[in-house]
Amino acid sequence: MAILVTGGAGYIGSICVEELLGQGYDVVVVDNLQEGHKEAVPPEVVFYEGNYGNRGFLEQIFQKHPVDIVMHFAAEATVGISMTDPRLFFENNVAFGLVLLDVMQAFRCSKMIFSSTAAVFGVPEYIPIDENHPEKPINAYGESKLMFERILDWYHRAYGFQYNAFRYFNAAGASASLGEAHRNETHLIPIILYTALGKREQIEIFGTDYDTKDGTCVRDYLHVIDIAQAHILGLSNLEKRPHAKYNLGNGVGFSNLEVLKTAERVTGQKIPFAFADRRSGDPDTLVASSQLARQELGWEPKYPRLESIISSAWKWHSKFPEGYPESA
């Protein structure tokens, strides 16, 4: 079984590639290296640098490799930018996705594991968020992912296309060799750890008056290896559930202050921070239910504790304080 991983040089994609290799899968990676890092792709993996929306480029790859399944991680994913430049998101996450589906069909490849997002739900009407929650995205990122999910629905109905889609909030943590190194970092845990490493003066915690136990936002953090394992379990689930969507989460959330205090315990140092005004559109609490994934996939997070998640990230950032060599 040959698996083509789009976005396989990115944070989540590269760790999924690492896990796939550990389970004996044959993997081919496509990434344009906009946010990914070539150093994150294992040397034994065939790697193609390019845009998955380039039809000719994709056709050459499918001609060279008998691809059975596509694991699709490639996407524009920065929520803030999606609100100022939505066209970029609809082009990359929807239009380019259609090119990928066209090429897959041309080469009789009709199976996909899609890395989606819990942003398809928007502001929660209840917590935890399960698969039946209304889908009302509040940003172009979530909207573009939901649009592609709906395209997959129609491809299943019309063409018998098989897919599993996974929705989750905050991926965090690291493997022993691979970690989070965005060129424009916006995620709380790496920003906290950069501050602990002296690469930032302090962090900002946005909002102190949310309806939570300590007044700061509560979010669902999930270890990146657990996310990767869910995607891999989807491979053997396609025949049984050929058009399934699963939410992934810890089932509990952690406030911004809890994340900060946990990071202080893990790093053994005080981390300077300052409170700032709320950010527009930030809900009080975002927590996903993963009950369906547990029941149907047998998925169970191996690293649910916040300490384990942050500790793995701290080990990686301490070992690679400048990230991957080319991004130093």
Q: Topology, please?
A:
Layout: E1 2-6, H1 11-22, E2 26-31, E3 46-49, H2 55-64, E4 67-72, H3 79-84, H4 86-106, E5 111-115, H5 140-159, E6 162-168, E7 170-172, H6 188-196, E8 203-206, E9 218-219, E10 221-223, H7 224-235, E11 243-248, E12 254-255, H8 256-267, E13 273-276, E14 285-286, H9 291-297, H10 306-319
Structure description:
The chain has 328 residues and is of the alpha/beta class. It has 2 domains: 2-172 and 221-248, 3-Layer(aba) Sandwich (Rossmann fold), CATH 3.40.50; 188-219 and 252-327, Alpha-Beta Complex (UDP-galactose 4-epimerase, domain 1), CATH 3.90.25.10. Helices cover 38% and strands 18% of the residues. It contains 10 helices and 14 strands. The strands form 4 sheets. The chain has a 7-stranded parallel β-sheet with strand order 3-2-1-4-5-6-11, with helices on both faces. Strand 5 (111-115), helix 5 (140-159) and strand 6 form a beta-alpha-beta unit. The longest helix has 21 residues, at 86-106. The protein is globular and about 55 Å long.
Distance between the termini: 36 Å
Proportion of residues in extended strands: 15-25%
The CATH topology of the largest domain corresponds to Rossmann fold
Main sheet attributes: strand count, strand direction, barrel closure: 7 strands, parallel
Q: What is the name of the CATH superfamily of the largest domain?
A: NAD(P)-binding Rossmann-like Domain
Based on secondary structure, the structural category is: alpha/beta
Strand element count: 14
- Categorize the overall geometry: globular
How are strands sequenced across the largest beta sheet?
Answer: 3-2-1-4-5-6-11
Classified by CATH, the class of the largest domain is Alpha Beta
Number of domains: 2
* Average pLDDT number: 95
Low-pLDDT segments: none
Fraction in helix: 25-40%
Radius of gyration: 19 Å
